[in-house]
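User: My collaborator sent over this chain with a note saying "see what the structure looks like." That's all I know about it. Can you take a look?
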Amino acid sequence: MKIVVCIKSVRATLLLQPSKKYAINPYDICALEEAVKLKESKQTEVICLIMGVVDQRLAAELKKFGADRIIFASDTKFAGADTLATTYTLSKAINKIGQVDLILCGDHAIDGETGHVGAGLAKRLGFDFLSNVDHLEVEEERLMCICRDKTYRYTYEIESGMVLAVVNCMIKEVTLSIMQLKRINSVAYEVWDASELEVDVEKCGLLGSRTKVVDVEQMNKRNARNATELNMENQEDMKQLLQILRRR
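Assistant: Without extra context I'll predict from the sequence alone. Here is the result:
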């Protein structure tokens, strides 16, 4: 079985990880872990596909999670892509990989929040799509996909030709050992640019995007407030709490 996991690299500062520049989108970590788990019961190749800047440390972290192959779709022509342009480029890369059985991705990226990439990929590739994926299981050689929403839990038996959007999120900093850091430059990865993917550059990046970012505004942080310790059994403290709540 050949599984492609679409990985989004996000600014590490969004996850309060200032020691590095980029981090793996938390939802994509869970998607990757679900793919790697299948190695225990099925002969599986896990391929990580990243559209973005090549980052050696990111490649090392993906390798640590269990990726067998790492591919960066990286070109300045891909920059500034919205969902439409992103799924076009990713679909070209997946077609180049060839004979892909499953595609996993995180439900959404924490820096975009659209959650449309999985469905968009399925549409472009002619694959079926399942969202709200909680985890995968293997039962007597059958691959089962467990999905959930706020009310129900659903179990599907799935075959090849599927895109799965994993809804779980894991926010944790991936640490590399001293030995892994020493060997970081030896981690193998591939880089595919626009010419190698044979893309129509009019459909990539900003040129291929139907939405444009016209303005970015930084929200002001709320002023820090002094903490007040209140005793729930003290009547005067309860009066003070009521006054605070009324002011809000």
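A starting point for your reply to your collaborator: The mean pLDDT is 88.
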